[in-house]
Amino acid sequence: MHVNDDGTTTLGVGLISVGWMGQLHTRAYTNLRFAYPDLGVRPRLVHAADPAEARAREAVEVLGYDRASADYREVLDDPEVDVVSICAPNFLHAEIGIAAARAGKHFWIEKPVGRGADETRAVSDAVDAAGVVTSIGFNYRHAPAVEYLRDLIASGKLGRITNVRGHMFADYSSDPRGALSWRFVRELAGSGVLGDLMGHLVDLVQYTLGPVAEVSAVTSTVYTERPELPMGTGTHFALVEDGEMKPVENEDYAALLVRFRDDAVAAGAVGTLEASRVAVGPRASYGIEIYGTNGSAHWDFERLNELHLSGGLGEADQGYRRVMARHGMGDFARFQPGAGTSMGYDDLKVIEARKFLLAVVGREEHNSNLRDALSANEVVSAAERSAEQRMWERVPAVTGTTSAGAASSARSAESSAG
Predict the structure, then answer these.
(1) Long-range CB pairs of 315-324, under 8 A, 24+ apart, other chains included
(2) Same domain for 24 and 56?
(3) Which of 214, 221, 282, 385 might form a disulfide with 259, Cβ 3.0–4.6 angstroms?
(4) Residue ranges of the Gfo/Idh/MocA-like oxidoreductase N-terminal domain (predicted)?
(5) Domain that holds residue 38
(6) DSSP state of 79
């Protein structure tokens, strides 16, 4: 970390795994100067690691890193690296996250941080011990319409929240020829769609409504075999013709009944959450519907620049109206000049990078963190236990999250104690 003569701070960036997500993190760092020219933080692309020679070479020749290595440990050992993006496959997240914390590197890591709550807790403990700043790839929470929805709920304009319906339906594995990547192998991925998509949905719900207290779940595996894809080749969108069939070891579909904690903004509310990676029709339909005693709202990622709001109780027209993302909603004004000109997926990662780096330099703490990742994974792990035992499961409480209601309650308790 270097403070420049003009008062800005330069942070050396390391990248671990130069796949699609690693490229996306890199673009986010690069685009910060365009969306936030007044940020006061300048990321410098220093060192990338990937065991695939072609990807390591791409990191330097295309993405613009100063150097590249095959071993991620060389990134963590580099004294010029201040922050690290961890974009490796799920089964490496805990190992690399713990190593990054022990190396004193602040890190931005994709979810799920661990293959279940136990691994995630181990990373969280290492982070707490090292005192490093973290941020999690929960990008959907950064959509301006979602930020606006969170404010509406917190202000009470929807009244008392009664119930929520959330879904994350994708078709990336709807074709039975879809490759058996690491995502379908329990040792490598842990759970299937629970960790991959449901973790995102749980964070979205907890960020807007507050922490989940209890779950009851059911899961199913729609395709029990898939053609194998060699590690390090292709993506989880790849189709394989006449490949060797291997067993799918985790779930394709999951549904949860949830109850919210008493300290949540949605205290007393209940809901249903569904996730599927084999849905035919939805491409990336990730959304929430929130119902209150004075109104309701729904948002879907496939139309991320729109929020549908109902009229208030007693109004002549209580039906839905479409509200377009605009200035005053989240960080929309940083990317587009006015309503109707849409933001995109990459922009959400730029917002995520901003929140991460500002937390690193100690200016703001609006970023998601390891406690949010642990909280989401506790819900996922409880859902796995529930599906196996066919009964309701309590979700252990996690402090220090950014969940709606719980964070403010925790701050109030700390102030009272002080």
Answers:
(1) 323/145, 323/148
(2) yes
(3) 214
(4) 12-138
(5) 2-139
(6) T
